[in-house]
Write a structure and sequence with these properties.
- The chain has 264 residues and is mostly helical.
- It has two domains: 2-158, no CATH class; 194-244, no CATH class.
- It contains seven helices and six strands; from the N terminus they run H-H-H-H-H-E-E-H-E-E-E-E-H.
- The strands form three sheets. The protein has a two-stranded antiparallel ribbon.
- A hairpin with a 6-residue loop joins strand 5 (217-220) and strand 6.
């Protein structure tokens, strides 16, 4: 009767554990974190998390080892219960007939019960440690899977470009956007559409006549047919200097004209 009660308790605990694990696993089945999902699956039974991580060989090893340890643990618990029943029967016989023979039998059964109990505890400890390692391995495998997935996404993003018209991402070897048909703008072409201000070093669109940051004016060069950046303040200084240079020439002409009139 004692064994039956223990078996019922063990089965009830296993059922409760399985139901709880199923509910937790279902709650995280749609999670974006594979490591959590894998860990919960391995919590339910060894190897399920590894199977989720697509590690088939490792999953098979964990399943076989986990099943063997569970079977051994169940047998040890059963054996320990049987040894306890034998010891209890021998103790009851000794209480009914206190003799040396019944005492020796009870003492022997107690020693066997103590040995089976220690063995069962060792097996339960090994099974618990294996179960914990199985959960950790599944979590670590899911973590590696997340990292590999992120690296693949980064590589895929590096091989794609964004359409400047509709914002659609498409492969870099496409010359036109597959959604709106806009021609892909190369990075070199994009660089040619801007120029750097010589005064503040800001990037300015090539069709701007003034730098929006410092107000520097861009002027066209007649020799190279390219635009030259000339700050407004410097332009005024150049014009003033030119006027100052022209004034002495006008004074010399007037003096020469007056001298010629005096000679006549």
């Amino acid at each position: 009767m004692l064994l039956s009660k223990k078996c019922i308790k063990i089965i009830s605990l296993m059922l409760c554990f399985a139901v709880l694990s199923c509910f937790i696993g279902k709650a995280y089945s749609q999670t974006s974190k594979p490591e959590i999902n894998a860990g919960l699956r391995s919590l339910l039974f060894p190897g399920l998390g590894q199977k989720y991580n697509k590690e088939d060989k490792k999953s098979l090893i964990f399943m076989i080892a986990g099943g063997a340890l569970l079977a051994t643990t169940g047998y040890m618990i059963y054996n320990q219960s049987a040894m306890y029943n034998d010891y209890k029967s021998a103790a009851d016989a000794f209480n009914g007939n206190k003799s040396q023979a019944t005492w020796d039998t009870a003492d022997s059964k107690y020693s066997e019960y103590g040995s089976s109990l220690r063995t069962a505890n060792i097996v339960i400890g090994i099974t618990s440690a294996f179960w914990a390692y199985n959960i950790y391995d599944a979590y670590a495998g899911g973590r590696r899977r997340t990292i590999v997935k992120k690296v693949d996404q980064d590589e895929k993003a590096a091989d794609t470009v964004k359409c400047g018209n509709c914002g659609t991402d498409f492969p870099a070897d496409f010359q036109f956007c597959p959604k709106c048909g806009t021609k892909k703008v190369e990075k070199d072409a994009e660089a040619e559409q801007v120029r750097k201000c010589s005064n503040c070093q800001a990037d300015v669109p090539i069709d701007f006549q003034f730098c929006p940051k410092c107000g520097t004016k861009f002027e066209a060069s007649t020799e190279t047919n390219t635009e030259i950046e000339v700050p407004i303040d410097e332009t005024e200084e150049i014009n003033d200097a030119a006027e100052e240079v022209e004034e002495p020439a006008e004074i010399d002409d007037i003096e020469k004209a007056m001298e010629s009139e005096l000679d006549q």
